[in-house]
Amino acid sequence: MTRFRSVQGSVAKIAATLLTTCLCVLGVTAVPAAQAQIAFAPCGDSNDFACGHLAVPLAPGNGSPETIALAIRRHRAPVGEARSAVIALAGGPGQAALPFAEQFAALLGPIVSTRDLIAFDQRGIGLSHPLSCHRFEQPLGGGPAGQAIAECAAQLGPSRSDYTSADTVADIEAIRVAGGYEKLVLYGTSYGTKVAEEYAQAYPSHVEALVLDSVVPPNGPDPLNRATFAAVGRILRQLCAARACAHITRSPTAGLARLLARLGGGEERGRWIDGHGRAHTIDISANALLGALVAGDLEPILRAEFPAAIRAAVSGDMAPVARLLARAESGESEAESPSESFDTPLYYATSCEEEQFPWNRSSSPRRRLAEAKGQIAKLAPSSIAPFTAANVLDFSDMDACAFWPFATPAPARQIAPLPAIPTLILSGADDLRTPTANAREVAAQIPGSHLLVVPNVGHSVLGTDPSNCSHVALLALFAGTAIKPCRAAPPSPLLRVVPLAPKRLADVAPAQGTRGKPGRTLQAVALTLADFNRQLALQELTQLESGSLAATTLDVGGLHAGWAAFAAGKLALHAYSYVPGVTISGEIGAEIVQLSIGGTAAAHGTLRLGPSRALTGVLEGQHVHLAGGRSSGLDASAAQFGAVLRAASATQIGSTAELARLRAELGR
């Protein structure tokens, strides 16, 4: 559930997903008219939820007899007959909610002990008549994405205007009536907050409470994403608070500005190594760097690596930023992969029809883009720095929706007041997709609402808050007790800012007790093992959370060369290189370590596991000793060598306990 699609998603990535997606056409079909009640039956995959469908008008309010069926899951209140229900709304627009029904129940906890919980796929998504387009069944061979979007809209036909937030609001009211509920609690995340707000405006007497997590205002999203650009500098400064970047950069924003100035709106090529030791190139551009920052909303590990990666790139070492961007792209591909959980045509049908774009809808696509660029040009450069007007356009939906054949007039601004009802507004202090400025705007419109800003958290607060502060606030809202502010806590080990990678062996201080080239090499070995342990843990966590871990093998690439793998209870390293010119090969097991140190810059030799988990051996004829733990003199921000051994001895890689260990390290 932490991967809800941002309403400000990168159109370039969305278009790439569209062009490679093979979708079938599922037309709207006639179904029986809505009944007074929803007929629920046991779900085949859950003992806690019942499944049902509700027929609702395709075009609410116009008298058309055509209907569509909404797929619904209901979790009954354990005690009594509930007269109220919690409606859980997913993000997007385009994110299915049914796959997250169990997670909704777990997050809301006691709130749903006296209320039913309702999750449903909104119209055009998942199991509720998903929208699809023939036009995107085959790649376009480099053709313009705008043309594909226009053809998709034409294929959807006039009914493409029936998938707005207002239509979903009407569906929620139909569910309330059919379910026999007097009042609803609306819990929304990201785009779901906009739907919740609009329902509260339309049906205030039927709302018991609002829980708004990662807020989109009623008149949002802003097509220019001004709040996102304004928050970039603040979030980078927060990342480097308490001198966390003292040995990396004086100002992460200034470093990013220098790199962007060097790129000059173009791109450079970087080289990264995959888990089999193969080298790949990747484009390093302003848009890619902005995408990586936004991806950090859901993968904070990316943010932890950002300052050092930018500093290295400024000095000419592109390897760290190339590795960072490769991981960010991989995460976005996983989050945006075509599946039943996200519907891209619906994303455009909703976003293009109801965003308040700065153009005349009757204009041609070319003219619309010109009008949009004119509005962007009016932005003060300081309000979007260190990025530029070109990045504002590329980051928006405007270059796609300019080609959308609009089926409705431009939406009027929402002026209906938000009711004075119990409301908890949650905002991650590090959220770039829906920055805290959005939350403050909505809080100012709801009398008596409670705004809780959670430190060190990005998007989707309830699902990612390691401090439990947001959950305590949720319980307090419904108990009628005081909601207390969250206290900032030190980040967990894997979320601490990563140190600057050495550009050469000469930049490495010798290990304590060993001088010269052998001492520098020994310290480079410690840094390399720390990097390897981090990369292994990140891949292990990613695979465990996605359910794709084979429970036998993990492999990661070195920063500059080589690779390493975990298999059969042992770690095998193959010329793994973190410091240029220093490679490590060999095996690390629970009770044995045999490493061969090589490379053009290193003091060659071998290392083995000695007493007290120390590394001992000979490098260039000199006996060396690297103690385990803090006494080794390793930088405090690097993972201890003992952590590598613990990873090596983990015999239950796919176990719940192992996943819990990694989540604890990440603060998830």
Radius of gyration: 27 Å
- Beta-strand content bin: 15-25%
Number of strands: 19
Mean pLDDT: 85
Strand order of the largest sheet: 1-2-3-5-4-6-7-10-11
Counting DSSP H or I runs of 4 or more residues, the number of helices is 21
Report the sheet with the most strands, covering strand number, pairing sense and barrel closure.
9 strands, mixed
Based on Cα principal axes, name the global outline.
Answer: globular
Structural account:
With 668 residues, the protein is of the alpha+beta class. The protein has helices spanning 11-20, 101-108, 145-156, 165-179, 191-202, 226-239, 252-263, 286-295, 300-314, 319-335, 344-354, 365-377, 381-384, 389-395, 398-401, 436-443, 461-464, 469-479, 516-546, 641-648, 656-666; strands at 41-42, 50-57, 67-75, 84-89, 116-120, 183-190, 207-215, 267-273, 279-285, 423-428, 450-454, 553-557, 561-567, 570-577, 583-588, 593-598, 605-609, 615-619, 622-626. Strands 1-2-3-5-4-6-7-10-11 form a 9-stranded mixed sheet, with helices on both faces. Strands 12-13-14-15-16-17-18-19 form an 8-stranded antiparallel sheet, covered by helices on one side. Helix 7 packs across helix 9 (300-314), helix 8 (286-295) crosses helix 10 (319-335) and helix 19 (516-546) packs across helix 20 (641-648). The two termini are 13 Å apart.
